[in-house]
Amino acid sequence: MLLTRTTRTAVVVAATAAMLGLAACGGGSAGEGGESGAQDMDPETCGPAGDLTVLTWRTDLVEDGTFDDYVATFKEAYPEIGDVDIQGITDYEGEVKTRMSTDDYGDVLAIPGSVAPDQLSQFFEPLGELSEMQTQYRWVEPESFEGLSYGIPVVGNVMGAVYNVEVFESAGVTDFATTPEEFLSDLEAVKAAHPDIAPLYTNYKDGWPLTAWQSYAGGVSGDPEYTNGMTTDEAPWSGGGDMEVIDGLLYDVVAQGLTEADPTTTNWEQSKQMLATGQIGVMMLGSWAIPQMQDAAEAAGETRDIIGYMPFPAQVDGTFHAVAGGDYNLAINVHSSNKCAARAWIDWFNHESGFSESQIGLSPLVDGPVPESLQAFIDQVELVEMAPAPEGQESLFSDIDTESGILTTSPDYRMKIVDDARSGARTKQQVFDDLNAAWSEAIQAVSGG
Amino acid sequence: MRRAAVAVVKYASLVVASVMMLLPVALIITGSFKTNQEFLSTGPFDAPENWLNLSNYATAFTRGGMLLGFANTAIILVAAITGTILIGAAAAYAIDRFTFAGRRVTLALFLLATLVPGVTTQVATFQVVKALGLYNSQAALIVLFMGTDIISIYIFVQFMRSIPRSLDEAAKIDGAGHLRIFLQVILPNLKPAIATVIIIKGIAIYNEFYIPFLYITNPDLRPISTSLFAFKGPFGAQWEVISAGVVITIIPILVLFLALQRYVYNGFTSGATK
Amino acid sequence: MALMTPARRAPGRAVDPSARQPGRRVTARRGRDRVVPYLFVLAPIVLLVTFTYVPVANMFFYSVTDWDGLDRVKNFVGLANYVDVFTEPDNLRVFVVSLYYLGASFVQMALALYFATILSFRVRLKNLWKGILFFPYLINGVAIGLIFLNFIRPGGGLDSALLAVGLESVIRQWTGDPEVINYTLAAVSVWRYMGLNFVMFLGAIASVPGEIYEAAELDGANRWHQFRHLILPAIKPIVGLSFILAISGSLSVFEVPYIMTNGGNGSETFVIRTIKMAFENNKVGLASAMAVVLLAIVLVVTWIQRRLVPEERVDLT
């Protein structure tokens, strides 16, 4: 009796609260031009003006003033623009994801990796027809749904690993490893030559650097359809498939003691300097990391070319493959009240800012140049661009991923692999068995429901 | 002889405990005066080269946004504590001085709520805050600090009973309305209880991490604890700056504690038992 | 319940004093008087319901759905989430982690009791010791996390101190070793909260009048007897209270492990996991079920505790 009464009151109050909330939101956006679609977003005609809030994951560029310069130049191009508030977010994935469960997540932001394609329209403003966007930009497919594009990458990455050239050469390693086994023995050689350093640094504590490992999927086999194939593969962690190779390598390097002694005390900012000064051999990170490592090298009094870039240690028929894809895609908050200015920022950022060159990345523009310092790497590998999911199945992968509880986009599951490899709580095979079981169960659940 | 041995054990244990309590903090303080190079190259027990090196403090304030953090904390503190006092005292006034239908239920609701640890319900509270349109606003924190604080209502109810009814009745005979009685008779007489609430509530809000962490992401709105938390990112390689941030955060509480020791102890012993 | 009595026992007070006065004004006044208490109690109740009862009710509701926190639809899934809470090894693991903190809270109470006893007798510099032991409790949780990250890092203060006193062999990877990490974090928790227990115990001991100790001393009671027969009974209610706080506290540990290890290397606690499930893994349903379980445990423990130790002090008498 008591319970029912309380519940009923609660429901009434909740309903009232929800109505109040809705009323408040409705009032706000209606006054400023209504919900999605109503605003003209062509910066040529809509007249970008007013204030803008931009969320970014590059706290380092906020910190060192780079973004201040961007804002100043942007305002020169669009004098009517008011305040541009750049919010740097350290734990970008986690925080923005939480924030997206409300309406308040800035005007311009990068789409977090864990947003499923069929959720895009719920959060972001469509930027144009996919087919049209493709004539101008690369890597727009992953953030598209039902023929509409929701985000444009700021820069393209290729997936390899940053390493300290001197450390490897002084250990007698001069050629890129072509198999995981060879890579492991190279690291052994590094360890033998430099007993006090971490041959490979996982950056475990910060978590997000471990998510980079997922981006090698497809690069191991050189198969652009690899991730799509995972939606029907009940045991991706077997038979020498990409996931097995990637996670197997992670397990092995940790189990064989080729990583930092205490992963719980790693430090991302410090790791840049440690790589530059030879206290770390290699870190598994996308090409976006190269300039940051080079800067750190320069700051530590080394030369910039002490930082090298190697492909993932796996070959198909004697050829390395490296996945090339967009870094974070910039998008517009569907609840933004200033979509015109937001669009102006995105276009300006891609065409005028010079960001992708400064980051030594591939240009997101179809006819954009390849930066010189990446050319050498690209000459040695075959680039793989992952194929978009077939129509109607855009969300299948992420549905299975979420359902399985593995969450390949989150660092947690690879942190667990590191934990197991260190403690021996599960053998490599047990890890794979558990992952396969969870994955196949999720495939059943998703296709069944 | 035995007495002496007992005394030795007693003082030795106190000294050991004090060292354990103070050492971690002391190392942060010395670290905050070191330069980056010094921090990396010298041992944790080495004294800083220059005890007057305040550059880390300057960095923490300017680039770390600690000043803004303090300002935000101050706004939240003042608003939430004022609210808590008014609300707590009003509820206590109604409960203690009136008989009304639903009084029992009201009381039961408050009693039951003390058993619900706030930390367990945040997943769902988040949805309520979001529906009210309060996410990412300081109002969310203020309202949550006010609305989830049952301890203060307790302290007020408790204390209200020691205020003689003859006081309000005298005021009533003079023609004062209930609002005036509440403002002019009850509130002034509640002063000691208000002081207790200010102290425990103030410290709790100042130190609260979970709620601002969950509800405020805009760096311009962050209170001090999440501002300090954000140090971990950009200053990850500069522990001397982090150390300075930690020291800056501790200083206000230390000053308050030294100035008001007796009240702080009393506040926590009475606050915790109710 | 004691709360009910004062209004009734107020001496010589009729239910409504104004009722004795004749005339029309009375009814007007009575009508107003009826509304008044509701006006005063309105704001507290609205806040209480909105931010405590609505969430609790919603939490029960979410816990039987598959809601991801965003979708407009919430499908009813029955008890599936609860089954997950108790069968999924990663979910069970957080209960194990909370045992470390529970164990630590007993150590903490023992230490607090020891120091409270010592300091309730004559000691030089009493206030200094008291202040030092209590102050950590007042420090910001984020600051504590950072202080200890600095203290236990390899080659940091702790390692150097152990080296200096010749205890090299004790040095471990304080958070890196999965066998050690939870002890380390639980020890930080003892460091942080011992002072509160200590001050509460001290207050309770001080409530025993000094003459009783003197009388006991005259009767030839030694310190142990004084502790056993005077101090212990005085602090029994507080110990009981500390017990509940220890259990609910050990299940709701969040700040220190979150800041220091982000729940990595097997240090994930109930609350960290709940947040990750709700906001990162989009499993609000599961997270709610976990929260309901946590709430249920706390309620049961409180109930048992109240049955065992009839509480004089927790009540409002």
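qc> Residues 38-153+328-379 of chain A form a domain with the D-Maltodextrin-Binding Protein; domain 2 fold (CATH 3.40.190.10).
qc> done
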